[in-house]
Design brief:
elongated, 16 strands, alpha/beta, 6-stranded mixed sheet, Alpha-Beta Plaits
């Protein structure tokens, strides 16, 4: 994907840079610079990776068009929005007017959004000059100006194994974890409503996985649980981790808690002029419960949003697809936004 983008962007006359993040996992960065003084800078920032193909009912990387839909892993999230961006850029560059606009447009194909935002984090640390960043995501052409963050916790307890006929000789690691899960269900989740956010509502929490023991007739010496917290600006990662640790510690001291990964929430002023301009090219504004790379750039003080064709309801599904009509409307919306600059 990175090799294809590099070739394609050079074909569109861009200055292209490949930023290596992991082996064979780069960001691909392109710039189109206007003549004269640069007055403003806009970035298009889709991601090149997808989620796992496990459990898919269609061939994930053999795209097929059927019933006016394009099927395949990434068609919705987020190769569809990326293709719409690239098509709009190609059309925009056909007119010489862009060279006199004073607007520098940049494109970056970001690696690692689905894993830990590694590509966006690396680019933000390197430093980007931008007045506005548009992360390509399937938003139904609504500008997502605010979204929840994510904080994934790993909880672990340890015991001592022995034969289950003499459990008093061992220490069962599942028992303290059961207390910790009960504390989350009864003492943490009901309290989340104390920190509502004006746009995003309250944070949410879900115990997603539990692993403990190896066989029914062995006292388990280890138990591990993963917890998904969807944070909001009023209940961020720091507050969430501190709150969970305090409530769990009241019931058991035998469970260790650490952050597995996290992504911050996004919270822009919906009346920002860039957001209004993009919303005018699309279908208005909205907020979302999921997270994306936009929040990484927003941490640097850059107005950043998610926007693109397709529906998040089709993302990550076993038969992922994007409607071709939506794809065409997405390209038209990106092009209108570019021409209105």
């Amino acid at each position: 994907m990175a090799d294809y983008l590099t070739s394609h962007l050079k074909g569109l006359g861009a200055e292209v840079e490949v930023q290596q993040i992991y082996p064979l996992r780069p960001n691909v960065i392109a710039h189109w610079k206007p003549m004269g003084k640069v007055k403003s800078r806009v970035w298009f920032a889709p991601h090149t990776d997808t989620v796992s193909v496990l459990g898919m009912s269609i061939s994930p990387f053999d795209p097929v068009i059927r019933n006016n839909r394009l099927y395949g892993r990434g068609s919705s999230d987020t190769k569809g929005p990326m293709a719409a961006m690239l098509h709009a850029l190609k059309e925009w560059l056909k007119s010489p007017d862009w060279q006199k606009s004073g607007v520098q447009v940049s494109f970056v194909g970001l690696m690692g959004e689905e894993a830990g935002n590694e590509g966006a984090i690396a680019l933000a640390r390197k430093g980007i000059e931008a007045d506005f960043v548009v992360a390509g995501e399937p938003t139904g052409l609504k500008v997502i100006y605010a979204h929840k963050g994510a904080c994934w916790l790993e909880m672990e307890s340890h015991g001592r194994s022995c034969h289950s006929s003499i459990p008093q000789k061992g220490v069962n690691a599942i028992y303290p974890m059961a207390k910790a899960i009960t504390a989350i269900e009864e003492e943490v989740i009901p309290k989340l409503k104390k920190w509502p956010h004006k746009s995003l509502g309250t944070a949410t929490m879900n115990v997603g996985t539990i692993q403990g023991g190896s066989k029914v007739n062995i006292v388990p010496d280890r138990c591990r649980v993963e917890v998904d917290i969807r944070t909001v600006p009023t209940f961020d990662e720091r507050k969430a981790v501190e709150f969970v640790r305090r409530k769990v510690a009241k019931t058991t001291k035998d469970v260790k808690i650490k952050v597995q990964r996290s992504s911050p929430p996004l919270d822009n002023d919906p009346n920002n002029l860039w957001i209004k301009k993009l919303a005018n090219a699309g279908r208005g504004k909205d907020v979302a419960p999921w997270f994306c790379d936009a929040a990484i750039f927003a941490q640097s003080g850059i107005p950043s949003v998610a926007f693109g064709p397709g529906s998040v309801a089709q993302a990550h599904t076993k038969d992922e697809f994007i409607d071709l009509h939506d794809l065409e409307q997405g390209a038209a919306a990106y092009l209108k936004f570019l021409r209105d600059l």
